[in-house]
Amino acid sequence: MKLLWIDDAEGSCGCESIELPPGWARTVVQGLGDGFRYARDGNWDVIAVVVPQGGWCAKEVVEQLLRVRHRTPVLVVARRPDYREAVEAAQTGAFDYLPAVDLPERLKSTLERVAALCGSSRRRSSPAEPWRQFVIGESRPMREVLEIVRLVGPRRCTVLITGETGTGKEVIARAIHMASPRAHLPMVAVNCSALPEHLLEAELFGHVKGAFTGAINNRIGRFEQAHRSTIFLDEIGEMPLELQAKLLRVLQEREFQRLGSSETIRVDVRVIAASNQNLEELVRRGRFREDLYYRLNVVPIHLPPLRARLSDVPLLVEYFIERICEREGLAPRRVSPEAMDRLCRYSWPGNVRQLENAVETAIVLSGDREVLYPSDFPLPPVTKPLPVAETTVIPLPDEGLDFEATIQQIERSLLEQAIRKTGGNKKRAAEMLRLKRTTFTAKLKSVLGDDLESELVRVQAG
After folding, report:
1. Helical residues (DSSP H) of 297-434, grouped into ranges
2. What is the pTM of this model?
3. Domains along the chain?
4. 360-369 burial string, b = 16+ CB within 10 Å, else e?
5. How far apart are CA 36 and CA 31, in angstroms?
6. I need a labelling partner for 100 at 20 to 30 A (CA). Which of 168, 294, 345, 411 fits?
7. CA 268 to CA 249: how far, in whole Å?
8. What's the CA gap between 110 and 104, in Å, rounded?
9. What is the tens place of the pLDDT at every residue in 90-125?
10. If DSSP codes are grouped into helix, strand and coil, which group holds residue 27?
């Protein structure tokens, strides 16, 4: 990578003696006259300029350089650092503001950050690895994930992706599909928590006319649509037990029957599943089949939360800004150093999805400004769960107790409290218990049974 260094006439900052990261080459010119000419005529990855010089202030130098090289990062090296000057440089579009006294240390880390941004962009557009465009990240945890994707992509083996909500499980699934020989066909995605059981079965396996009320025509299912391609089963932990047994047969035999039909259909499908729940814990609680878990967990991939890879935040922000501005037809935006520092210190409970929403909000709130400031990112405070020591302790009597019955009593109590506190509003009650609405409704039916409707009517009546 190529660095253009525009020193002052005396060469006071001594750039030649500063060690650069591996892979970097520098060209040093003295004075703004040659500096502007080299900037205009050359092909540079970064331009660094010492200020003040020749009567020009930092803001004026940055404006001129971006006028001739508008997509090249500009570093301002300040012999006499000034906070107001730093803010003006950032507002004008400078990539970073470096005090000359900290130059050897700061320059190296800044160039490494630029290399990461440029390297990620090049890999995303590399024809040799088209799948790489889907995955943004250079941190150690993400490099491990990328290596697994690279190895498992060309194979047929089943993959189970786990991680918190918003970490990008579907993104990794699409990367695996794009890295496979099946990439010429579209990947088929199904959210297992979005549909009730009878509709989910029809969605997966299809149905014939008259199979159930409302089945007025034959319909092929998602497994048939994914023949010779990939099917992605998201939120697999929400799949009902009866349907899990049918999915297990598909994984074992690669065949199934449409709902209401006795005809056996064979398919060649690669299965990728994902869950934000601990499936091993669901197996122990009898809510997920153990044999299905081992069938799915052939190659496990765990996606780290964003708080565990905060060094990827600048890359993700750059990617989201580019994508959103292109989609909305807006001029490119830059993030001020103060705003980027805030983003890199936040814990992101909603993970990458929350970061993307925050960037989109900032672009909207910034109006026509080209620089995004901390005030453009209204991040909610992070609430932490109580430590285990502070939670309610259930006494265990000497004679023991019925574990399952006790858990059911606790579950029933929490559900009833949530319903009462929200006046029977199931959506808000589900949010109080951090549950999906479909999961909350299913739990209500299983716990309250025939008492459900009467309980809701009683609560809503006050």
Report:
1. 313-328, 337-345, 351-365, 403-421, 426-432
2. 0.60
3. 2-122 (3.40.50.2300), 130-302 (3.40.50.300), 306-376 (1.10.8.60), 388-460 (1.10.10)
4. bebbeebeee
5. 9
6. 345
7. 14
8. 10
9. 777 788 888 887 777 788 888 887 776 665 444 454
10. strand
What residues contact residue 267 under an 8 Å CB cut-off, 6+ apart? 223, 224, 226, 227, 250, 254, 255, 256
The closest alpha carbon to 348, from 301, 309, 385, belongs to 309
pLDDT in tens, 394-433: 667 767 777 777 777 788 888 888 877 777 777 788 888 8
**DSSP letter string, 157-213:** --EEEE--TTS-HHHHHHHHHHTSTTTTS--EEEETTSS-HHHHHHHHH-B-TTSST
Q: How far apart are CA 231 and CA 174, in angstroms?
A: 10
Whether the Cβ atoms of residue 3 and residue 27 lie closer than 8 Å to each other: yes
Class of residue 159 by CB neighbours under 10 A (exposed 0-12, middle 13-18, buried 19+): buried
Q: Identify the sign of the CA torsion 177, 179, 181, 186.
A: positive
Judge contact between 192 and 235, C-beta under 8 A.
yes
- What distance lies between CA 322 and its chain's CA centroid? 16
Class of residue 135 by CB neighbours under 10 A (exposed 0-12, middle 13-18, buried 19+): buried
Q: How far apart are CA 459 and CA 450, in angstroms?
A: 15
Give the pLDDT of residue 297.
95
Exposed/middle/buried for residue 227 (C-beta within 10 Å: 0-12, 13-18, 19+): middle
Is 61 in a helix, a strand, or coil? helix
Region at 367 (left for phi over 0; alpha for psi -120 to 50; beta for the rest): left
Residue 354: alpha-carbon gap to chain centroid: 8
- When computed from its CA atoms, the radius of gyration of the chain, rounded to whole angstroms, is 28
